[in-house]
Design a protein that fits this description.
By secondary structure, the protein is α+β, with helices and mostly antiparallel strands. The protein is built from four helices and three strands. The protein has helices at 15-20, 36-43, 47-55, 74-83, and strands at 33-35, 63-64, 70-73. It has a three-stranded antiparallel β-sheet with strand order 1-3-2. It is extended.
Length: 89
Amino acid sequence: MAKHLKQKRGTKTPMKKRASALDGLLSLSDDQVLDFHSWCQLNRISERTGRRILASSDGPRTVQISARRIGITVRANRNWQHARERAAR
């Protein structure tokens, strides 16, 4: 019987493993719709922060995927990111 290896408490997942989860999201067309979880991963924010951003008036435009699901197009995400850029110093 094999035991599951547990990650030590307080240790972080190596950056290589975290970045590889985004590999499939980087080559998307402008009209493709990301579900909420994928949008959070793409922007490297938590789901709680994502909900807070979407609840504010500064969030990206959303698409109603179904009665209980929302999504964000790649174009809307890019426009939202550009609107939030800071001027170079």
